[in-house]
Task: structure prediction
Amino acid sequence: MTDTVYGRPDNVHPPLAYPGYGSTRLRAPSQSLVLLPHNLTEVTGPLFGTSRVRPTDDDLTVQHEGEPIGQRIIVHGRVIEAGGRPVRGTLIEIWQANAAGRYRHARDTWPAPIDPNFTGLGRTTTGDDGSYRFTTIRPGIYPWGNHDNAWRPAHIHFSLFGRAFTQRLITQMYFPDDPMFAHDPIFQSIPDERARPRLISRFDYAETKSNWALAYEFDIVLRGRDATPMEDGHDD
Amino acid sequence: MMTDLADLNALTPSQTVGPFLHIALPWPDGPDVVPAGTPDLIVVSGRVFDGAGDGVPDAIVETWQADPDGRFEHPDDPRGSAAPSVAGFRGFGRSATDDQGAFAIRTVKPGPLPSSSTPPEAPHLDVSVFARGLLDRVVTRCYFGDETSANAGDPVLNALPDESRRVTLIAEPVDGGYRFDIHLQGRDETVFFDV
Result:
């Protein structure tokens, strides 16, 4: 029924069972995954356009009465499919800790200050060239309970839909030269070492705003459509 | 451009959604695939369990589906994009789990789907689960227990390597909808797909 098939990633995504990340122990499936052919449900997906985005959603520094504490930054980039086609008009959702490394969340209880002027939630929609841009503050590094003296590299969570169920991706963007990469099992869980730097944003001097904000560039590549046509799918 | 994009096939890796997904992902209307009051509305609900049999309180369940006519409002459907036959139908549902691991999606049952190479697919939802402790999403399908004959011909159900696990993909009819529990691991482990 469909002549669209998405390429299947190999060695890019972390394995579900990864002993270094303790929470996988009781949550990773133990049976093998079953191959699902790409029929209609898989090659389609929700197309939200701008319907989920409010005017201040792309600037995390203007969502409260005062400005959040921290280093003001611009995070921007493009969302493309493997092969280079831009992913237009797709919803991006981000969330992050504040400058002290504290999330505004009931289950985050480590003793770093809450910033009353920072929620840490952003949304935007990509433009026709797949581009997006947020203004926010640089999140802090924070400790977690995975192992002795464990700290997460500073990161921003990214959620992307692409245009098809197969393209759905949730990931994390990191910052250059973070001292915690070598100590972080979540970052290290990516099997192909060459794939890990794809999650590290690039300091982008050209996009910094004089007397205002630093800038980081983070491009995201979702799975692409294979050109290989299936059997004739237009007979009904 | 990042130099790595010189290889345009360099996919961005997945990372876990983490425990604080609630800052961004739940929407007030997330569970509403259709508006309240829609005729023939069903609630697909269940719990997400870990390998110890405990509810997973920091997961989010997402669903994607055709409308009751088996159509999608999407340009990549080779039959053409079709406006939904149910007013306000979004196709997409999203429900974070509660302290017990429970989720609920309010929707209508999708229609069956044609396939070029196989018998039609029985009505189903594609389901993604994200959680702390999952480095990538897991994907399953929710079929409907009262679609006995459609399920009997479904090419995905019939291709499962282990027939005894078929039951994990079939939601049980209950008052007002269907019950669909998701076991990430363990004796009753749900079938998950490489999508």
Notes: The longest helix of chain B spans residues 148-153. The mean pLDDT of chain B is 95. DSSP finds two helices and ten strands in chain B. Chain B has one domain: 15-183.
